[in-house]
Design a protein that fits this description.
By secondary structure, the protein is an alpha/beta fold. Among the domains are: 48-67 and 178-200, no CATH class; 72-173, Beta Barrel (OB fold (Dihydrolipoamide Acetyltransferase, E2P)), CATH 2.40.50.140; 277-469, Rossmann fold, CATH 3.40.50; 479-636, P-loop containing nucleotide triphosphate hydrolases (Rossmann fold, 3-Layer(aba) Sandwich). The protein contains 24 helices and 20 strands. The strands form four sheets. A seven-stranded parallel beta sheet has the order 10-11-9-12-13-8-14, sandwiched between helices. α19 (550-561) links the parallel β17 and β18 (567-570). α10 packs parallel to α11 and α11 (323-336) crosses α12 (348-362). It is globular, with a radius of gyration of 32 Å. The two termini are 36 Å apart. The protein binds adenosine-5'-diphosphate and magnesium ion. Adenosine-5'-diphosphate binds at residues 288, 290-291, 294, 317, 319-325, 449, 473.
Length: 720
């Protein structure tokens, strides 16, 4: 194995005469101990650490540095220092004091320091307290750079007092760890605390069995933690971190695989074999032929439906890629086999939209879906629920409430879930528990228009199979996307007016307002007035936002859909689903505030018909990251590529626009970076479950506990 192992306590000692007895290994208590139990750390440090989510010594040890300062190992003498070169020296302090300067914000601390080769002045900027803390006579390590001039001074970048109980060279020599820190808890202070906590690394639980560590070439947990904080070489630090990344991903993959296996074993689903009678009628009525990718998805779904093992499949394809028709064919197959099907949408508006689309797709196949949402009048809803319970209605469309509010089915065989990223692993489990009257589980098909890079899909949804539709149906021109700067705003309005005069329609998307929906609504209302009185005065302007009563919102949407308004000013309520082929231009205000995935969704609102689409994004990003996002948006219309870029730009976890909390959250792994580790972890997890399906062997006991802790929301996972 390549890394130089940190010698374990006890080993190789105590063998000879006079050797010291092996130190006692600290137990689990040392791992759970409070921060204030560390020498030199008080309540203030404890509170400051808590702000970083660090509540125990163990948490502290898992707070890894995000980079290292590479200082050289050896110290030099003062006489050897060269101008303009950074170096570390070991000196004795002779005198120190604060020098005010003429500049109000600048104060300099000057110290006379000496070593065997001579003496020098060392300086610090704006660190008055050092004049109180450092004492003449102190032995110091100073890291800094020698300035030019006739009396050159050493400008100090980092210093430490020797003999203070810490590890010598902690701040000044070799690879010095740099931590995410706060004002109250500086990287320097964190470094000291981690150094004090170092012996407690022996209390870390070794979760990965020896065979796996050996097979994957990973260091033991204690070595890994120590190496990640205080590596002796860059490679050692990487290996330490890698070990923690792999461990995290192994635990995750084990949980997901176990979940999938448990489902497959516990429940059988009805085998829904197609007879093609309805689906051939649906196909015959289509205005188009399916693309090859659509056909492949239809075949994959069809095959799954024909099995007794419940289907758990993710159908991903970006906006407008034609997922709905794939779902419609799956629904046909279910009904042909005598089962019922349900489609769940994340909002009532989307459920209504799906009803319209599916009505026209399924009509020729002799199917009339029923809508079950809170908006349907009670009496009518009762009638529909009876129809579902008795099996007179075969297809239901609604929000998730359709399944959770105790609507029962005669023989539910297929559940299609739209926009699956809004549901976590736990909700998926709840859905899976739903069964028809026969006690069989339903097959599940999840659809998402937020394309997820395959690597992420494997991690977050390791328990799902994936079908992907890339690209959009033939004959569509990609939406022309332009980043418009504030000084060209008038030209943007002119472009919109040109489209409106040609009979097309436009969206104007208002910025996200952090204070919430109310404030967002106010801003949107003001924007409507501004546009209607100014740049778009010649046209009718409608308004839709999240704080509107639902009738009002629906009216605004349908006015626009049916062409009674030319422009729809909206907040992100139009993000998903709304389908108005005559709308060809969308203007997005403060676009840098949106995530890339969300911008791509919004852009997908135009270019849905025969006319080419235009997307104008306004925004003056305050950060480099924001600028890169907008840049990326204008450069590609491939949602998958954008999703990958988003990963690279923002890191994982934000791909869905919001950070998801739950068992699939990652602490150490970065999917944009750790793809190899992900593959390794999947392999290791599979292999482990092959040799020990319940993780019940002694060497897997801690691994099992870790999986169960992570998936605490899913009780009895891994139970036989
Ligand atoms: P999404 O994947 O966003 O749900 P839809 O299923 O709503 O996409 O499809 C978008 C539009 O493309 C619809 O109007 C649909 O009728 C049309 N469409 C779907 N498949 C094809 C195809 N193979 N050729 C041409 N148009 C298609
Ligand atoms: Mg759709």
């Amino acid at each position: 194995m390549s890394h130089p192992p940190v010698p374990p306590f006890g080993e190789g000692r105590g063998a000879g005469w006079g050797a010291p007895p092996p130190p006692r290994r600290p137990g689990p208590d040392a791992w759970r101990a409070r921060i204030s139990s560390l020498a030199g750390a008080g309540r203030a440090a404890e509170r400051a650490a808590a702000d970083l989510g660090i509540r125990s010594v163990g948490d502290l040890l898992l707070h890894l540095p995000f980079r290292y300062e590479a200082f050289d190992e050896a110290t030099r003498s003062l006489g050897e220092l060269a101008v303009g070169e950074e170096a570390t020296v070991r000196v004795r302090l002779e005198a120190i004091r604060v020098h005010p300067t003429r500049r109000r914000n600048l104060r300099i601390v000057r110290a006379r320091v000496r070593d065997a080769s001579g003496q020098l002045t060392a300086i610090w900027f704006n660190q008055d307290h050092l004049a109180r803390v450092l004492r003449p006579g102190d032995e110091l390590l100073l890291r800094g750079e020698l300035g030019a001039g006739s009396a050159p001074e050493l400008s100090v970048k980092s210093h430490e007092v020797l003999g203070g109980g810490g590890s010598e060279g902690l701040h000044t020599r070799g690879l010095v760890p740099v931590y995410a820190a706060t004002e109250a808890l500086t990287p320097r202070r964190l470094r000291e605390l981690v150094d004090r906590a170092r012996p407690s690394a022996w209390a870390a639980l070794e979760v990965l069995p020896a065979w796996m560590r050996w097979r994957l070439g990973l260091p033991a947990i204690t070595d890994a933690i120590v190496a990640a904080h205080f590596p002796r070489a860059a490679r050692e630090g990487r290996l330490g971190r890698r070990r923690l990344v792999v461990e995290e991903l192994v635990v995750l993959q084990l949980g997901l695989l176990a979940l999938r296996r448990a489902e497959g074993r516990r429940r059988r689903a009805p085998a829904l074999r197609p007879n093609g009678e309805r689906s051939s009628r649906l196909r015959a009525a289509l205005q188009f032929t399916l693309t090859r990718e659509q056909e492949r998805a239809v075949a994959q779904v069809g095959r799954d439906l024909g099995r007794r093992q419940p289907m758990r499949r993710l159908l991903q394809g970006e906006v407008g890629s034609g997922k709905t028709v794939v779902a419609a064919l799956a629904i046909c197959q279910a009904v042909e086999a005598g089962a019922q099907a349900a489609l769940l949408a994340p909002t009532e508006t989307l459920a209504e939209q799906h009803l319209r689309t599916l009505d026209s797709l399924l009509g020729p196949a002799g199917l009339a879906p029923v809508l079950v949402t809170g908006r349907v009048p009670r009496a009518e809803r009762d009638r529909r629920e009876v129809a579902l319970r008795t099996g007179t209605a075969s297809v239901a469309i609604g929000t998730q409430a359709l399944l959770t509010e105790g609507v029962t089915f005669d023989a539910l065989g297929l559940v299609v879930v739209d926009e699956q990223h809004r549901f976590g692993v736990e909700q998926r489990q709840a859905l899976a528990e739903r069964a028809g009257a026969t006690g069989d589980a339903a097959h599940l098909l999840y659809m998402t228009a937020t394309p997820i890079p395959r690597t992420l899909a494997l991690t977050a949804y390791g328990d799902l199979s994936v079908s992907t539709i890339r690209g959009r149906p033939p004959g569509r021109t990609p939406v022309d996307t332009r980043w418009v700067h504030e000084d060209a705003r008038d030209e943007a309005y002119e472009a919109i007016r040109a489209q409106l005069r040609a009979g097309r329609q436009a969206y104007v998307i208002c910025p996200l307002v952090e204070e919430g929906a109310e404030a967002e609504a106010r801003a949107a209302t003001t924007e409507v007035q501004r546009l209607a009185a100014g740049p778009l005065a010649a046209f009718t302007v409608g308004l839709a936002h999240g704080a509107q009563p639902s009738d009002e919102k629906r009216a605004a949407m349908s006015d626009f859909a049916e062409g009674r308004t030319d422009v729809l000013v909206a907040t992100t309520v139009v993000e998903v689903g709304i389908d108005v082929p005559n709308a060809t231009v969308i203007l997005i205000e403060d676009a840098d505030r949106f995530g890339l995935a969300q911008l791509h969704q919004l852009r997908g609102r135009v270019g849905r018909g025969e006319h080419p689409g235009l997307c104008l994004v306004l925004g003056e990003p305050a950060t480099e990251e924001g600028a890169r996002r907008l840049e990326a948006l204008t450069q590609t219309s491939d949602g998958f590529k954008l999703a990958e870029l988003d990963l690279d730009i923002r890191g994982e976890g934000s791909i869905m626009g919001v950070r998801q909390a739950g068992p699939t959250d990652l602490r150490f792994a970065r999917l944009s970076r750790d793809r190899r580790e992900l593959a390794t972890a999947r392999y290791a997890a599979r292999r482990t479950l092959e040799i020990d399906p319940g993780l019940s062997r002694p060497e897997h006991v801690l691994l099992r506990a870790a999986v169960r802790e992570r998936f605490a929301a899913i009780p009895r996972l891994l139970d036989a």
